[in-house]
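Hi everyone,

Forwarding the result from last night's run.
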Amino acid sequence: MELDPSIEPTRNDHKVYVVVDGFGHNGRIFRERDVETTVTDLMSEQYVAPVRVVAVNPAEHKIEGASEDIALEILRRADLSGQELPSSIKAFVDNYLGATGSTLRPARTRTNVGTD
């Protein structure tokens, strides 16, 4: 009998990011990812209607909101590449950062997303 793989991280400093994706009246789904996959999946429209992102650090028994940090990273990457925000994540970014322009506001830039 094959056992399901454990979601327990192999490193003590590993964070797992959980994205809450809304499906309207059909409910929500929770997806576990590392920070890089979370950001790239959001930017490539792999989510229907992302609602929130939380960072889970099992080694420290901590859960913290990560939505604003992820939204800032999405804006930073979109700004660097000259891309518009995909429609599937514009509401998510606007919800956590306010109405967005075509460039980042320097005072809100954060470069250490995903580092411990």
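Confidence is low (pLDDT under 50) at residues 1-9, 101-111.

Cheers,
N.
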